[in-house]
Amino acid sequence: MNDILKLLEEDCRYTPDQIAAMTGRTAEEVSKAIDKLREDGVINGYTALIDWEKTDADTVTAFIEVKITPQRDDGFDRIAKRIYQYDEVESLYLMSGAFDFAVIVTGRSLKDVSQFVSLKLAPIDGVISTATHFIMKRYKDKHRIFSKKPVEEERVLFV
Amino acid sequence: MIDYERLMSSSVRSLKPSGIRRFFDILENMHDPSAISLGIGEPDFVTPWHIREAGIYSLEQGFTKYTGNAGLKALRAETSNYLKRRFDLSYDPDGEIFITVGGSEAIDLCVRALVEAGDEVIVPVPSFVCYGPLVTMSSGTPVYVETKAENEFRLTARELREAITPRTKLLILPFPNNPTGAVMERKDLLAIEEVLRGTDIMILSDEIYSELSYGIHHTSPANIDGLKERTLVVNGFSKAFAMTGWRLGYVCGPKPLLRQMVKIHQYGIMSAPTTSQYAAIEALKNGDDDIEMMRESYDRRRKLMLKRLRDMGLECFEPKGAFYMFPSIKSTGMTSDEFCTRFLEEEKVAVIPGTAFGQGGEGFVRMCYAASVENIEAAMDRMKRFLERVRK
To answer: How far is CA B381 from CA A27, A142, B15, in A?
Structure first.
């Protein structure tokens, strides 16, 4: 099963036929396996990796450190739920170390994101403090390097 | 006017340029971004960063001088550990291993050290293009033995026995094989041992693709009792670690032979590139996972291309090594050369005619699957369309 997952992580556009050929299964077996992985919540969706900087769209991303007081019975989970339901929140992680949550937030402008932090995130019960770091440039994401096309090298081709 | 042709050594003049080149010239002149090349025999990975970084670090430290002729002691020691760990081969880093400029130099040295006028060298074909010309340059005579598709392009004991004469000095064993993808397993090598027993025939085992074996574990002739003492093992970093441009390989074998070979290396090369040697130490120490990652990736693409070719009704034996498919195109009625020329001109896909790799290659083409899945699929779609058209 993990070989199918690795392939989908490499390129989720691979068809069941292609995955079948590459892993020595039938296409039907692959489709069934993928359905099961979706049902079990192992696969949670498919998405494209976009370098928005190369488009004319305005987007700003921030990485926000959040410290909280854990709640009786629910620990961190209830507060996490109150944070991650916002559409502005791209990712949310529980961290070890100097702060508790790492929240990644996207918006159209710095102002947009700051307003989200001060009006939505900071006032949540249990949030003690926030520290917002704006992302200046994205070099690499999900194992992909965001760069221009490399120059074609001159090569000897008789091997 | 100087007549340069007349000045050139006749053995050099007699060499034919590699038959692979022509297709790239056509491809390059097309200037067509939709053109796809399955022609190059090279990993499509960049050298893993930790290996590149080790090379850079060696430069930062100022390690820019020659190394000893045989290569860095630490590199020979790591090579020895690696060969033991991966292939159960035991070689003394002090005298039984030395570091060369790619596997290519190692092959050249073996041939030059052993072969002289009157000697015959058995070269199984189809195989990589360098062996015959190097033998010719040493005034020896290459004796080509055609391996057969029905034997999965392995060299059989019978074929070998028929090629041996009192003049036979050296047998080349180029497995896993470029272009066929054939491998020699233990039983095959045991049969070779039986034929060679009692003779003085040496073996040059070119194992540059040893890490790219699929579903089987690579066996070297040096793993076989009775063959090790007559075997020179050539290997390198290009294919296992995606380090083609670093130009680094090595040769292992009996001390008395290597002592002689290192003299040629000393006069012709001095020492292999120092930066590459430092990078290679890192590759051997911490690169086993990289090998696995790349091998698995090639294996997936191998299965994909094999299935596509067979679905088109092309006869193709399952290659168990290297990164090439060698399907038969005899059903089209075309020669390999016609097939490749038309396929390139009409469908803009470069593949190499089997004839570029010697006799026995007629009726086959070589396709390298070290290409992106996207390009493999597109090339296979075009191949299917091409076949449908030419088979009518």
So the answer is: 18, 30, 37
Q: Is there a single domain that holds both residue A74 and residue A109?
A: yes
Do A102 and A33 sit in the same domain of this protein?
Answer: no
Q: B238 to chain A: nearest residue by CA?
A: A159
Asked whether the beta carbons of residue B301 and residue A24 sit closer than 8 angstroms, the reply is: no
The C-alpha R_g of chain B, in whole angstroms, comes to: 21
- Answer whether residue A14 is part of any domain: yes
CB contact under 8 A, A157 and B39: yes
Query: How much is the pTM?
Result: 0.89
Chain B contacts in chain A segment 123-142 (CB below 8 A): none
Helices (H) and strands (E) counted in chain B, each on its own, are 14, 12
Structural domains in chain A (count):
2
Which of B18, B301, B377 lies closest to A158 in CB terms?
A: B18
Per the structure, the complete domain to which residue A12 belongs is given by 2-39
Distance of residue A92 Cα from the nearest chain B Cα, in angstroms: 30
Residues of A in contact with B41 (CB under 8 A): 159
The tens-digit pLDDT sequence of chain B (392 residues) is 899 988 999 888 888 877 777 777 777 778 888 899 999 889 999 999 999 999 999 999 999 999 999 999 999 999 999 999 999 999 999 999 999 999 999 999 999 999 999 999 999 999 999 999 999 999 999 999 999 999 999 999 999 999 999 999 999 999 999 999 999 999 999 999 999 999 999 999 999 999 999 999 999 999 999 999 999 999 999 999 999 999 999 999 999 999 999 999 999 999 999 999 999 999 999 999 999 999 999 999 999 999 999 999 999 999 999 999 999 999 999 999 999 999 999 999 999 999 999 989 999 999 999 999 999 999 999 999 999 999 87
CATH number at residue A125: 3.30.70.920
Ranges of beta strands (E only) in A17-157 are 60-68, 89-94, 101-107, 127-134, 140-141, 144-145
